Give the backbone structure.
Amino acid sequence: MKILLIDPSYNLEEIGGKKRGFRQVINKIPSLGLGYLAAVSERAGHTVKIIDCNFGIDDTGLIYAAREFNPAVIGITATTPVFRSASRVAGIMRNIFPDAVLVCGGPHPSACPQDALSAGAFDFLVLGEGEETFLELVSHAGNKINIGPENIRGIAFLREGRLFITQKRPRIENPDSLPFPARHLFPPLGAYRPTPASYRRLPLGIMMTSRGCPSRCTFCDRAVFGEEFRQRSTDSVIAEIEELLRRYGAREVRFFDDTFTINPAFVEDLCGKIKKLRIPWTCLTRVTAVNPDMLKLMREAGCWQVLFGLESGDNCVLRYLAKGNTVEDNRRAVAWAREAGLRVRADFLVGSPWETKESLKRTVQFAKSLPLDYAHFNKFVPFPETAIYKGLINKGRHIFFNGGSYINNHSEFIYTPDAFDKNEYQYLLNKAYKEFYLRPAYLLRKMLAIRTVTELIGQIRGLASILYL
């Protein structure tokens, strides 16, 4: 069958706010989710096309490309911030292909099936990991299996106007069983522009070495990959890196695992193998999942930067966020990384229900006291099905995701903590960035640390984004 997969475009104002600000540093990277769906579909013998609408493809271009391909099944991926765009694209596709099966998957439909189906644009939702579920849906659409949709595990649809959710599908136990993402169906890797803080060299290849996160952070949604951790083999990871380098021209790799270092034996084995490739790489991890020896091993193997989710400089806030670490743990891990020769990015979460003016001030002061290369003061958004979201709903709070649901949009807010009014919250968010980044000593240190022309250009874009806040 012909399968069209679409990554809908995001509205720059929705993502980065009304000012130019963060719109200049939007993380434009290929969708790994669609890449995996395309790969398993091709392996099953289907013909697949991917349209990434974030490359200046307007409605006219989308319609032309879709008509030329003439798909029987259309799959659209959606996070919460881009769901409105996904619904709009689905409406366009419905008008052109009234008989096509329209499917939506990703974080938003997995967490909010009722909301996703109420848009009236989709026939089916894929809940959680999509590869096996999507293939079964495609077989159903092509009358290749003689079962009703209610017997396909892991989907949702409307029956007589009411939500019908089928039995939950088990997670994919062995991620090595999946083919590598079908990157040949995306625009060239060099056309993508990740956020400047995440690379030294372009093109940047992104990949994952595991699925699932056993941590119980109250602000994090695990609707897609769940809490069960599943690790790929190091041989599989190395083979994918080699494909990124040789077939797609990547000059650097970023691992997008929630906690890259959760399995020390895996890290040690991978470092021994990746060292031979002489490729720079970065990763995301937790401060409680590293130690000095591990960080030194990573640096020797080509890692040049780690991203820690520090979240707050206030221990009370950290406890409510269920991070499992303290302010002192944060400080110690950053020091270990710097001693190992690594650069450090840090994510801070600003504006959770327990945030106060004092805790926010402590967080900014804490960030300034650390030898950080980058600090992201991410606006808190109570994403669907997170523990905080459920708690707010149980207390009678109404959360509407019709605007301002992206963490870098400082113009619109779907949630403001009780200790702030909206204008004050907005001012303090912007002030946190300026206070951290516009320090003369910091700017001088960053300029002296630049190693490539590509990095220099990225840093100029990043600085401009702060100035425009």
About this structure: Residues 422-437 form the longest helix (16 residues). The mean pLDDT is 92.
